[in-house]
């Protein structure tokens, strides 16, 4: 019974650490410019700004981020499916 409490505590600690890391990643910004184009990407791999010919492209930012979210969900699903077959390679954890 105490093991379950200990595991729950560890899980909460891990979740808290993951949230802290996520917030730190969101603060990272990388901007690139080429010709009349500019893009800004955050450390959590989201596009925060696109400018083409001096005009901000909010709809394009939203569209790309939506597509990225969908593909990340699909990739995570595939990884979970494959994870079952990989457990023997990792040994007992």
UniProtKB/TrEMBL annotation:
Domain of life: Bacteria
UniProt-listed InterPro entries: YbaB-like_sf, YbaB/EbfC
Official protein name in the record: Nucleoid-associated protein, YbaB/EbfC family
A Pfam family per the record: YbaB_DNA_bd
GO MF: DNA binding
């Amino acid at each position: 019974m105490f093991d379950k409490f200990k595991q729950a505590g560890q899980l909460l600690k891990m979740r808290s650490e993951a949230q802290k890391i996520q917030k730190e990643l969101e603060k990272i910004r990388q901007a690139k410019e080429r010709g009349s184009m500019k893009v800004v990407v955050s450390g959590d791999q989201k596009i925060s700004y696109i400018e083409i010919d001096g005009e901000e492209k909010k709809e394009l930012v939203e569209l790309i981020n939506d597509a990225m979210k969908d593909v990340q969900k699909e990739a995570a699903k595939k990884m979970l499916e494959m994870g079952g077959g990989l457990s023997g390679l990792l040994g007992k954890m």
